[in-house]
Design a protein that fits this description.
Helices cover about 25% and strands about 30% of the residues. With about 325 residues, the chain is of the alpha+beta class. The strands form two sheets. Strands 7, 8, 9, 10, 11, 12, 13, 14 and 15 form a nine-stranded mixed β-sheet that branches. Strands 2-1-6-5-3-4-16 form a seven-stranded antiparallel β-sheet. The two termini are about 25 Å apart.
Length: about 325
């Protein structure tokens, strides 16, 4: 991970090393935070954020689901995002939006803890590489929607993914797939999953415990462009073993093929996976005019300055960076 120059925190750009939070931050103890992972891609017209509007809309929905008040509007968050990318001079990078309960009081109750919002950017290659992924079925089950709001991209429930990822890597695999309480395939630790069988693209529905992925939605739309039927349906573990192809997708992962599941070999990327990977590369890098509206151009940097977003109470700013 390569550090950038600035991180946006509560209305201003601060040097990377000064973007600090208090040790008694509520979210650090209780997981009361929501986040988004978004990417900037190099295009012929300069860097552009891919599907920024959808990511910000999901951030707002996630905050509402866990009862976290957001002190900034979508317009303000958009401006902060573009300002941060421009100030850091990125042509291609990852963006992490984070809204968390800060330091106010200790204990489960969070109402007196202010919401701290930050936008960080850094250069980050695809998290699962590009040469294929060896997948194992985790012994851990995916979070259940009756226990936590799985539709929210919240930090607390991600312990589930951390445990599954560690288990897979300790066993010599690259990634884990989690089943839900009913035994249906849900998703991987940080990516949605697609099965290709008989020319159709199959992916678990949100009801299976999977996050409703923006990259997942992108691939379904690109599949329609290519004439590949895409269906959301429950999948069993054996559906993975019987698949012609399996691919994973996510903002951090991009589009990557699965080479094996639980020791059952699949080999290199199949034809459907390759077509989708090529189409995704074209649309994210501005080579597909049909989906230019998915790209938000990053303006040239005017240098670090106070953001147009409204500042918080000064006391809140002090404790958030104490």
């Amino acid at each position: 991970m390569r550090e950038a120059a600035y991180i946006w925190m509560d209305g201003e750009l601060v040097p990377w090393g000064e973007a600090r939070v208090h040790v008694l931050t509520h979210a650090l103890h209780y997981g009361t935070a929501v986040f988004e992972g978004t990417r900037v891609f190099a295009t012929p017209d300069g860097p552009a954020v891919f599907r920024l509007e959808e990511h910000l809309a999901r951030l707002v929905r996630s905050a509402r689901m866990i009862g976290l008040p957001l002190p900034y509007s979508v317009d303000e968050l958009r401006a902060a995002t573009l300002e941060t990318v421009a100030a850091n001079g990125h042509a291609d990078c990852y963006i992490r939006h984070l809204a968390h309960r800060g330091f106010g009081e200790m204990g489960i109750a969070a109402r007196r803890c202010p919401t701290v919002v930050s936008v960080a950017t850094w250069e980050w290659p695809p998290l699962l590489g590009t040469s294929g992924v060896r997948l194992m079925t985790s012994s851990w089950r995916r979070n259940d929607h009756r226990v936590v709001p799985v539709a929210a991209k919240a930090t607390g429930p991600y312990l589930n993914s951390v445990l599954a990822k560690d288990e897979a890597m300790a066993a010599g695999y690259d990634e884990a797939v989690l089943l839900n309480a009913a035994g249906h395939v849900s998703e991987c630790t940080g990516a949605n999953l697609f099965v290709v069988r008989d020319g159709r693209l199959l992916t678990p529905p949100p009801g299976a415990g999977a996050l409703d992925g923006i990259t997942q939605d992108t691939l379904e739309r690109l599949a329609a462009d290519l004439g590949v039927p895409a269906v959301r349906q429950d999948l069993m573990r054996t559906d993975l073993y019987a698949a012609d192809e399996i691919l994973l997708c996510g903002t951090g992962a991009g589009v990557v093929h699965v080479t094996a599941v639980d020791g059952r070999e699949l080999g290199g990327p199949g034809p459907v996976t390759q077509k989708l990977a090529d189409a995704y590369d074209a649309v994210t890098h501005g080579r597909d005019d049909r989906h230019r509206d998915w790209l938000t151009p990053v303006p040239a940097s005017g240098g670090p300055a106070r953001s147009a977003a409204r500042p918080h109470d000064p006391a809140s700013d002090l404790v958030s960076r104490a």
